[in-house]
Amino acid sequence: MTKKTAYNIAVVGATGAVGKKITQILEQKNFPINELKLLSSKRSAGTKLLFKNQEITVEEATPDSFAGVDIALFSAGGSVSKQLAPEAVKHGAVVVDNTSAYRMDNEVPLVVPEVNEEDIKSHKGIIANPNCSTIQMVAALKPIKDAFGISRVIVSTYQAVSGAGNEACNELENQTKQYLNNEDMTAELLPVKGDEKHYPIAFNALPQIDVFQENGYTFEEMKMINETKKIMHAPNLPVAATCVRLPLFTSHAESVYVDVEKEGLAVEDIWNVLRDAEGVILEDDPNTQTYPTPLSASNKEEVFVGRVRKDLDNNKGIHLWVVSDNLVKGAAWNTIQIADRLIKNNWL
Amino acid sequence: MTKKTAYNIAVVGATGAVGKKITQILEQKNFPINELKLLSSKRSAGTKLLFKNQEITVEEATPDSFAGVDIALFSAGGSVSKQLAPEAVKHGAVVVDNTSAYRMDNEVPLVVPEVNEEDIKSHKGIIANPNCSTIQMVAALKPIKDAFGISRVIVSTYQAVSGAGNEACNELENQTKQYLNNEDMTAELLPVKGDEKHYPIAFNALPQIDVFQENGYTFEEMKMINETKKIMHAPNLPVAATCVRLPLFTSHAESVYVDVEKEGLAVEDIWNVLRDAEGVILEDDPNTQTYPTPLSASNKEEVFVGRVRKDLDNNKGIHLWVVSDNLVKGAAWNTIQIADRLIKNNWL
């Protein structure tokens, strides 16, 4: 069978923060598209969006939307994926799903291409895109694990509101204006849409992302813990996470502590493996105050690492500061990378 | 000798963010003051400030300013303390110093009253007030250490700009307005006044507080590491810190990982000791989304702890979220507490 040179692509959730970013990157990267279908909920259907200077009308996503689609990129929330991803697969599409619906399903590969590209091969129609804060952390940890082994990870996150969607960005902007005008802040969405209580995020820090689980951890924290083990093929790796939402629009940062297996490493040893790592950019020089920040990483597709330090007490301990755009590498770009590897490797 | 009933107090750095907070709390607490001297640099001398509805003219701080002063509360920067604290002592005053000038001096007690009040007793004229981020952490760790032992601490901080003074608050406010107006942000101060590079703090996170040391850690991180060991009388306790400045005006938060010595503790065991701890308020209920935040802790004098969790892999590991107002307990209130204990214990 001759390989196609262009593909029919569907974007589900096309009017959302991630969906828009996906369409934008498909255009920038000149992805080999035959037909692009932009799909959404009934509510947003009819919206017109531009792709390569052509207006595309967003259609309501239904099971029949996927007839003739080669690859469907889902980012419309877990319930939509649960309902429609199997329908897309039935119609012969391969789904790259950006929600948490299938991530921990044993039948579904969970992929960061720089870390576990080969896992894509065993897909049965659905490939899951990991949680944004997980993606950037494993991209930084993988080269360290390969070179020196890893026996423990403890992470505290500094996460942007765009991870909670366009509405959350509006909420941060509105609250910021209210605060500066000495008005009471209106908190109706964060930390979690639909949860019982809402707190202001402007000039604040909320130690809750997603809902609480029975063990006292939030779902976001459990995603980081469980997804990291799955992606790195390290089911017994101890991983601990504390996830915090902050008044940033874009890019997550992470303070990561790692125990490596090899003793006596120097900072230069870590620098060397990070410099050579795919998708990672080392920005680390205390002498020139060089380190990544959420603003400096925004709209870029790489994972940036700085502040590499040896622990002062534990000879196997390393501290890192990891920053990446949560909507780009943390969502849209990683999704498109998976689609790209599906095609390049003939794994469709 | 009869104990005085009111004292001559000097506030050095009276026009700064911490100095103003000190004067405000002295008034609120009805501190037993005979005469209050407000002192500053030559530049700010002449400013008029209100204390209990009386106008006080700020005077330039000189060696002679301390004649007759019983207690001098310094927060005008390390170089002023280096120069004038010994002069105040020569004039018979006891100095409570809020800068880093004397903190690691073996002759100077470094005190958080809830943790090591007894250390005040051995002062030789100067008592040091610890760094803000250290104070709130040790207040939360002390009861845990006393009950269960502590063998390791790893902290990542979420710090407000007011720790860098009034000017830093103005910078955050101005940059925020610029960003919302789509203007370029003016960065002239943060992360560190006088350092070579400056980065915007609005909608950003800067992994640098104070200048870099030769070992790749910032001075703020080394303060947390060294001061914690000194205050807790635990010179060999492994402490690691990553300090991050955030777009918050007030209150620092900390994600703290602790290894306790006792095995098999339940979250309830930690809750119980924190509930009984002096100066600590437990705010922790995942079922009702109860946890402290920088906004909820602002203008309060306690240290707030929430998100207490057992590590999922390490049976001796505990995670905490610690929040406190960096200008109140982190600076002014802790300083005044030390002054108060000096008087109450007859240790002047």
Please report the first level of CATH classification, the CATH class of the largest domain in chain A: Alpha Beta
**Total domain count of chain A:** 2
Major sheet of chain A: size, sense and barrel closure?
6 strands, parallel
CATH architecture of the largest domain in chain A: 2-Layer Sandwich
Strand order of the largest sheet of chain A: 5-2-1-6-7-8
CATH homologous group name of the largest domain in chain A: Dihydrodipicolinate Reductase, domain 2
CATH topology of the largest domain in chain A: Dihydrodipicolinate Reductase, domain 2
Most extensive protein-chain contact, per-chain counts: A-B, 59 and 59 residues
Number of strands of chain A: 14
Strand content of chain A: 15-25%
Q: Encode the helix/strand succession of chain A as letters.
A: EHEEEEEHEHEHEHHEEHEHEEH
Overall pLDDT score of chain A: 97
- Counting DSSP H or I runs of 4 or more residues, the number of helices of chain A is 9
Choose one word for the global shape of chain A.
globular
Uncertain regions spanning at least 5 consecutive residues of chain A: none
The secondary-structure class of chain A comes to alpha/beta
User: Mind telling me the C-alpha Rg of chain A?
Assistant: 20 Å
